Amino acid sequence: MRSVSLVAMLLMAAVVAAPRAGAAILQDPGFELSVDGTLTSNSAWVLTSNIPDGLSLAAQFSDLNIPGKGGLMMVWFKSFEGMFDPGDPAAQAELMQMVNATPGVYDLTFRAKLEAHFTAGQAFVEISSDVGDLQAFDLFSIPTGIFGDFAINNFIASAGTTKLTIRAVMVDGVFADMNPQSLLLDDFNLTGGGEVPEPGTMALLGSGLVCLWFAKRRRG
Q1: Which 8-state DSSP code applies to residue 33?
Q2: Tell me, what's the pLDDT at 205?
Q3: Predicted TM-score of the model (pTM)
């Protein structure tokens, strides 16, 4: 009886090692603390942008009135600011937030609108850990013209993870000479966490099951 109790305790320890939380992790998911027309977030978000023509940012927080978006603020990537005039550089922008985290499984959801003539070398959302895990979502893969809900699901942050970084990036945006040509982003939410069972934990679980089976046979 004592051996069965010990095995049960080991099994419980193995299972408890992999909880999955559901609480939101990111600060200000909808950018409601940000300042319209600027790079100022007033939160953990960091928005960076070049100024291709020396006058206008290639990205900014904005309160554009977009039907179906919900909320007030969003991030506006403006590819059309790049190479507008001869000699102007391409448009570059990055939105980023880094958070404390533990090893585990995470889901990242966000809303986006890709306009028909938005033109850039790359546009993507990604989640990465400080131990090298990375998963990306190609924003050119989404339908054009409407705000939609998208996700990176089941991202695994490996053992040793202490930080996660969420990024949305526009690389080499250029003027397309046709409208509309923007990329709009909003409502980033990161949920999940908890320990991912390591090989040793899984071995412990397997050994416990075998021991439990033998203990039941002996009692039988």
Answers
A1: T
A2: 44
A3: 0.79
